[in-house]
Design brief:
CATH topology: Jelly Rolls
CATH class: Mainly Beta
Structural class: mainly beta
Low-confidence stretches: 1-6
Number of strands: 7
Strand content: 35-45%
Order of helices and strands: HEEEEEEE
Largest sheet: 7 strands, mixed
Number of domains: 1
Distance between the termini: 14 Å
């Protein structure tokens, strides 16, 4: 695991641009977001999702942004479903119960507060207690 400080200069700027596709080449596990950046208390994460594994859950204090890079993702809420295609994003408002259901294999970029609980207070097979920083040193 590489800490973000390796990618930042002392003035806080990034040492180099990050190639998203090369980042995805570094991992294949699903429902295990990898941190690739941090700004203003937010983590920028990449995730692969596949299969109907995400439980219904809520984030009481945080909004959650799902930006689809590849594939199609349904963001289900109890009262509606929003289909998100490549190049589109959707923000789930705090307190809104939701789950995501990918159509096949989906690549996502997530923008979330650094302390967000992966599946809210719900424990499931995909729940992560902490997030891994992706090694960008060879990026």
């Amino acid at each position: 695991m590489l800490e973000w400080s390796v990618m930042q200069r002392k003035d806080g700027t990034m040492a180099k641009a990050v190639n998203i596709e090369r980042c995805f080449e570094k991992f294949s596990d699903t429902y295990s977001p990898k941190i690739i950046g941090e700004l203003n208390g937010q983590h920028v994460k990449l995730a692969r999702v596949e299969g109907d594994k995400c439980p219904w859950h809520t984030h009481e204090n945080e909004d959650e942004l799902f930006y689809v890079l590849d594939g199609v993702l349904d963001v289900q809420m109890r009262d509606e479903t929003v289909r998100v295609a490549p190049g589109e994003f959707y923000i789930v408002a705090l307190g809104k119960e939701h789950r995501v259901v990918p159509h096949g294999h989906v690549k996502l970029m997530l923008f979330e507060p650094a302390g967000i609980a992966h599946t809210g207070t719900v424990q499931a097979e995909i729940t992560k207690d902490q997030y891994e920083w992706l090694d960008l040193s060879e990026e």
